[in-house]
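[job 4471] stage=fold_predict status=RUNNING
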Amino acid sequence: MTQPAAGARRAYGAKTAPYAHPSPTTTLRRARSAPSFSPSPTTTLKRARSAPSFSPSPTTTLKRARSAPYFFLLPAALLFVLFFALPIGYALWLSLHKIEVKGLGLGKGARSEVWAGLENYTAALTDFELGHSALRILGYGAIVVPVMLGLALLFALLLDSERVRARSFSRLAIFLPYAVPGVIAALMWGFLYLPDVSPFHYLLDALGMPRPDLMDGGPLYLAMANIAVWGGTGFNMIVIYTSLRSLPTEVFEAAKLDGCSELQIALRIKIPMVAPSLVLTFFFSIIATLQVFNEPTTLRPLTNGIPTTWSPLMKVYNDAFTGGNIHAASATAVVLAAATFLLSFGLLRASDRRTKQGATR
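[job 4471] inference complete, writing structure tokens
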């Protein structure tokens, strides 16, 4: 056979020498020395424009928009369930059960929790101590609520006046007692009421005047009411004052042009226009009055005139932690919660009905 000429191409399919694979080092060198290709900005822009764009369907967009509020409300809902709904449900469950003691109550299984039905509620509603504590709270609230809201409205109207000076300082001074914790405020006032350590009693002795006993009997209501008024007036004042500052000034200017005085503007314009804020503060005051606990509990070690069941919440605390009957205490707490809800709902409906009747006139 004749050999092919040097430099001639070999025919396709012909048997040739085995192909020699390059070494890894040679491949790496070729890869490093090969020119890199990067598309121009115009080519990149053309590719981006020609690429198919994905846009969600209107149904998907609507579903996402509807589910977004629930996603943001989820943390608050979880906290509400964990720290509000579950404790209420557990209290309801406890109020429907009781402890049954077998024999002497000794040994395993001698004390068991059984179904009680409405027995605890019947005992709570027929408890004379709970009735007496409710009457004490009514007398206490009859002093606190009118005085506190009256002072809050008076201070708010005075601060809203144009002639008042040092408005910022006065507003802070009135609100500052609200920042004092209730236990500290009750303890401070309690020592001011004690005859042996009170500077007021020392002044009365120096003037030759009798010293009143504010820690027993009827004056005790005034003493505790003073603590509540001193601490709660600032908060209610801020609510009413904020409502006053949001009123349009054109109404007051027109009233002044008509010859109205500051007192007439306050009585005939400002107070009716801030009626919703007054209703709100009234509800807050009623609820706080029904839940009074700090003042009598703190003052009780300083006097013998405050029993352990002076207020309904003290009765619940005494039954649960002193008497060890947590089931009866749960039933009493549920009764108090229901009474608070019914009272607030009734007052709100009456206020709403009166507002609608005034609007129709």
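[job 4471] summary: The two ends are 126 Å apart (CA to CA).
[job 4471] exit 0
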